[in-house]
């Protein structure tokens, strides 16, 4: 799993029941310090759903969205396990380096 897919999963985890495209994009852009394209978000979400890492459902349509529905995303157990494995792998890569080592 790539860094961007990890960022999407973490955003979904952070947002909980409010995880849909716009807030996911905003969360990642804010934390990475640069804009993220809508296409990149939805491509990653499709890949993650195909892997079984997330599931999605359509919420009710609202007048404020021109009567269009939102697609919400939830982190599933395989996605949580993949995130934890990525965290352990990163921690292991950094192990043994002194604090404040150049990144």
Describe it.
The chain is elongated, with a radius of gyration of 16 Å. It is built from 4 helices and 2 strands. The protein is mainly alpha-helical and 103 residues long. The model has no long low-confidence stretch (mean pLDDT 92). The chain has helices at residues 3-15, 21-32, 38-50, 77-94, and strands spanning 54-58, 71-75. A two-stranded antiparallel ribbon has the order 1-2. Helix 1 crosses helix 3 (38-50).
Write the layout of secondary structure elements.
Layout: H1 3-15, H2 21-32, H3 38-50, E1 54-58, E2 71-75, H4 77-94
Antiparallel strand pairs: 1-2
Helix pairs in contact: 1-2, 1-3
Q: Report the biggest beta sheet as strand number plus sense, adding barrel if it closes.
A: 2 strands, antiparallel
Helix content: 40-55%
Low-pLDDT segments, ≥5 res: none
Number of H/I helices: 4
Distance between the termini: 21 Å
Q: What is the topology, as strand order, of the major beta sheet?
A: 1-2
3D shape: elongated
**How many structural domains are formed by the residues?**
1
Query: Which percent range describes the beta-strand content?
Result: 5-15%
Query: Looking at the chains present, what oligomeric state does this protein adopt?
Result: single chain
Short structural summary:
This protein is mostly helical. The chain has helices at 3-15, 21-32, 38-50, 77-94; strands at residues 54-58, 71-75. The protein has four helices and two strands.
Main traits of this protein?
mainly alpha, Arc Repressor Mutant, subunit A, two-stranded antiparallel ribbon, 54% helix
